[in-house]
Amino acid sequence: MTTIGFIGSGRIGGALAQLAVAAGHDVVLSNSRGPQSLQEIVAQLGSRAQAASTTEAAAAGDMVVVTIPVRAYRQIPVAPLRGRVVIDTLNYDPARQGAVPEIEASGIPPHLLLQAHLPDTYVVKAFSTVFFQHLPQLARPAGAPDRSAVPIAGEHVPAKAAVAALIDSLGFDAYDVGTMAESRRFAPGTPAQLAYLHPDGMFAAPARPASAADLAALLEKAN
Ligand SMILES: NC(=O)c1ccc[n+]([C@@H]2O[C@H](COP(=O)([O-])OP(=O)(O)OC[C@H]3O[C@@H](n4cnc5c(N)ncnc54)[C@H](OP(=O)(O)O)[C@@H]3O)[C@@H](O)[C@H]2O)c1
């Protein structure tokens, strides 16, 4: 089993932590307000969960999920993440989560900002396409006929393999889209990013499973 650190423990962080604990992993949660503010979610998650500072969560994780508003990326601790596998869930959403001057000025994607901030860290983009409420709805055991695939991207093949194994344990198939640059094919606004949304109800409707074949067809549309 794996210890997963969380930088950010909000909607996506909380939902992923729940799946991780259910799969038998340990989780170390952190946020901007400090461990005291995480007592309630830690109590809900049970004995496999603990709260910590961001530096402690980064150091504790065999893998670390970075799941914060992009505007806060400079506050991610750098030193403890060196040599580690980091899962990047980030989408840029200035209206809801605040603008980032360098993105506004140049359109640089958030994964490049994160990669520049975290040298020597093996960043894998994953779970940026799943609405947080849909994560528990879509998780299935391995081999289930309606199991969903989630796209991943990154430069480092062993890191992607480690993240794919984690994703499998959480109830999804990982679909490797390629290098980090290829994550543009599942960026916000692309067909693949809408894979699990029911066209009639969108976010309000129950999630719609999407297989690897479904995902491949949607990713193709962004070429
Ligand atoms: N919501 C979704 O369905 C969804 C889906 C896919 C991808 N995403 C992406 O995933 C990321 C997280 O989204 P979310 O919806 O989970 O956001 P959220 O509910 O607002 O949670 C954000 C978390 O980040 C923490 N945080 C903020 N600034 C921080 C800092 N400087 N250091 C450490 N932690 C910090 C917050 O802690 P405090 O509360 O203490 O400030 C909170 O725990 C975003 O980039 C979003 O675009 C979201």
From TrEMBL:
Key words, A-Z: Oxidoreductase
Domain Pyrroline-5-carboxylate reductase catalytic N-terminal: residue ranges: 3-92
Coiled coil: none
GO MF terms, alphabetically ordered: oxidoreductase activity
SUPFAM superfamilies: NAD(P)-binding Rossmann-fold domains
Pfam families given in the database record: F420_oxidored
Gene3D superfamilies: NAD(P)-binding Rossmann-like Domain (3.40.50.720)
Keyword Nucleotidyltransferase: no
Name listed for the protein in its UniProt record: NAD(P)-binding domain-containing protein
